[in-house]
Amino acid sequence: PVALDLLTTAAEMGNARAMGNLGYLHENGVGISKNADVAFSYFQKSAELGDSASQAHLGWMFETGTGTTKDLGIASTWYGKAGVQGDRDAAMRVAWLNLTQQGKGLDKARGIDVLRDLVKAGHAPAFVHLGNEFMAGTQVPKDPQEAERLLTQAVDLGNYGAALMLEEWYRNGTDLPKNPDREKYFERKKLELVSEWVSRGDPYAKAFQAELAIHPSAAGGEKESLPVLQRKAKDGDLVALFALGLAYQNRGTGLKADMKRAFDCFEKGARAGFPPAKFQVGLYYEDPVLSMNLGG
């Protein structure tokens, strides 16, 4: 193909972006046979020349063992290089790997430092993760008030996941005193933010909204029965399929927690190319607790 020839010529002339594009084509078999090893070679060359997108993807290849030997320490290094160039999602992978995994080149203190830097930069997911660390008290001193402060700031930045967590914390009263007024406030914020993100076309928000709709607390016009959600999932609606997985994972109305069925829903969605499902499947493979619940 002409496009492939042009990219190859540009790559041979040292164009890092062309190398990354060739890596994508070889990895996904676009206009050429799939070859993860060749893809890895192109992404590595591109990353070494400083292309941030290739650096982040090379991190993913080392994290998953795609086209190379799995090495989480090296994965963290490449994610970090992309993070230095402004890729906040890559920087979050650095924090996640260092805080949740073990191995050569990984350091939990580094994970906390990365989260603190991302908080200073105003990255909402970092507020949530650092807040969780303060609530857990394993890598930093336990401080529920600091956790609440960080998650409240995440809500102010538009993070509906933070609103959900605060709603549950104030309802359960485990680490923060029960407070019905604060619980209701964050419930309203959660619904407002989910609707806002749905209007932007965010697939995660769409699935989360679908899962919320099967709960008794759903407003009349928003409420949907579990059988309807199950039928939509069976008919191939990827948002409904993902929402059903969330319901199994989080004990949705009329469903008992069943991590195996949740994983099956996510895996089907991942195979169909639904990005949130791909991410969720990755969590199952990387989290030993979730993996044990699969019974495999």
What does this structure look like?
This protein has helices at 2-12, 16-28, 36-48, 52-64, 72-84, 88-100, 108-120, 124-136, 144-156, 160-172, 180-199, 203-212, 226-234, 238-250, 259-271, 275-286, 288-292. Helix 3 (36-48) crosses helix 4, helix 9 (144-156) runs antiparallel to helix 10 (160-172) and helix 10 runs antiparallel to helix 11. The longest helix is centred in the middle third of the chain and has 20 residues, at 180-199. By secondary structure, the protein is mainly alpha-helical. It has 17 helices and no strands. The radius of gyration is 21 Å and the shape is globular. Helix content is 71%, strand content 0%.
SSE layout:
Blueprint: H1 2-12, H2 16-28, H3 36-48, H4 52-64, H5 72-84, H6 88-100, H7 108-120, H8 124-136, H9 144-156, H10 160-172, H11 180-199, H12 203-212, H13 226-234, H14 238-250, H15 259-271, H16 275-286, H17 288-292
